[in-house]
Amino acid sequence: MLDCAIIGGGPAGLTAGLYATRGGLKNVVLFESGMPGGQITQSSEIENYPGFFEHTKTGMDFMDTWQEQCFHFGLKHEMKRVERVAKTGKHFTVTLENGEKIEAMAVIVCTGSTPKRAGFKGEDEYFGRGVSTCATCDGFFYKNKPVTVLGGGDTALEEAFYLSNICSDVYVVHRRDTFRAAPSTVDRVKRKENIHLITDTVIEEVLGDAMGVSGVKLKDKEGKITQLDTPGLFVFVGHNVNNSVLKDENGTFICEMNEWGQVVVDLSMRTSVEGLFAAGDMRIEAPKQVVIAAGDGATAALQVISYIQEQA
């Protein structure tokens, strides 16, 4: 019987493991099929984590120290994929990919979410080298430079507005002639002088060289091809929440979710199922920042410690 099973090895999961083990739990296992670290390991540079200001460090370098610290205090890592979690009586059953079942008193799920790709040519090639899915993370690299934003929802327009306070010009490309974002958001964007809306248009290809992105090739509804020279491209076409472990054998979620498949939690990271916690990018209203995910993980672990003490 595990004290706590942690599913997902990104910043939220690792921090949960650190706080759980340092907080006195003796049998805590982190399940992550690959090496822990999460999406941040794909970043070429970390600049907005408090107290960490070494520009030569990559996301992989950044997370290496987290693993060493967490495992030092007794967190165990099982390189196995979890199929599902179920509440069985007072405890939980964690089913692994090989059919093995493990019992746990409490579970913290930190499996995150994955930004959707738009599918244009060069998107994967230049991801992390001018193509980004996080304005807060990477916007500063384009200070006083023009950038392109792809998308038409609330996130795309809110991020475009954020970028407009950093960049010289922001070109918003949307495939339709109307936006899905809230009317107030659309109005605010339209009133910002350095935001330029390009509608009924798609991105055909991102252009660049060994130094990174240099521009994008656009195609309007009439088939006309134009080129927009910007060194940065921000893609906001949605996220896929990695929530499959919270589905039972019938495909029904075991806890409350919102319409986008995000886990509904309170400020303590508690789900609607007692003893089950969710942290990081898979929860509702997640800002998708490493510092927030780490805080979520710490909060969830402290709550698990209290929960287990109450069960004794």
TrEMBL record:
Keywords: Disulfide bond, FAD, Flavoprotein, NADP, Oxidoreductase, Redox-active center. It is an enzyme of class 1 (oxidoreductase). It catalyses: [thioredoxin]-dithiol + NADP(+) = [thioredoxin]-disulfide + NADPH + H(+). Transmembrane segments: none annotated. InterPro entries: FAD/NAD-bd_sf, FAD/NAD-binding_dom, Ferredoxin-NADP_redctase_2, Pyr_nucl-diS_OxRdtase_2_AS, Thioredox_Rdtase. The keyword Ribonucleoprotein does not apply. Its EC number is 1.8.1.9. Binds 1 FAD per subunit. Its cofactor is FAD. One of its GO terms (molecular function) is thioredoxin-disulfide reductase (NADPH) activity. This is Thioredoxin reductase. It comes from Sulfurovum zhangzhouensis. The gene is trxB.
